[in-house]
Design a protein that fits this description.
mainly alpha, 5 helices, globular
Amino acid sequence: MDTLTIFGLQLVLSLIVYALIAKWYVTPWLTEKPIRHALIPLIFPHAIRHIGLIFFVPGVVAQPLPSFFVYTAAYGDLISGLLALLSLVALRGGWRLALPLVWLFNSVGTVDLLNALRQAEAVSDLGATWYIPTFWVPILLVTHFMIFTRLLKRGR
């Protein structure tokens, strides 16, 4: 198997596993919670997205990643993580702007992940950061979807 095929297979299988966990265990538990309480555990995984800054660290990636990928992925993750932290504080604090902040964070974070995933040319150079898109990004995608679902249900 070539590198891109292995990457794609790992990404898809991780997505399936996390989607099943979400559907069978997390969603039923969150359904009973008010939206502000249900969103908090879904946002927490995003609060550590600063880990994407590792793309800047020489020696961790196999060779220098394409600069467009590095800057958009690393800074996109940092911004998404900071917006997630702000959303958590706003939700916990009962701020009036909490849900608009969650919408902003979730939209920015989703676009950031989809943008990074479309840059397949960087896959062979990920080195030790391979686990981020094959293990961590699927969790983030599933929780982004779950957050959008909760926000849209509330709007109806």
